[in-house]
Design goal:
single chain; 106 residues; mainly alpha; 4 helices; 0% strand; Vps52; Vps52_C
Length: 106
Amino acid sequence: MEMLDLILQRRWMAMGELLVKLANMFAKPKLQIVFLINNYDMTISILKLMAIIKKEAGADGGKMQMHFEELLKSNIAIYVELKILHGSCDIELLVKDIITTCSNSH
């Protein structure tokens, strides 16, 4: 079973690398980050569903979920930075935009 877990973990890591490459196809950094936020969130949802189906996350499944949750948090922080750094920023509009973006990613 350990070999299968290792293979699955490698596949998930490769998928994460693929998402970054696909995000780089967008010209604007904001679009790259939004793409990653949406896809990391979807990946986490799939990992959670797999854990429910298996009735246990298992050590590797839990690690992969935490890995993608960290990537998601990191990219949300980058998105906020980009919004603040580009132009005069109305904080109320920024918060509404972030809430909308995060809600759409669920």
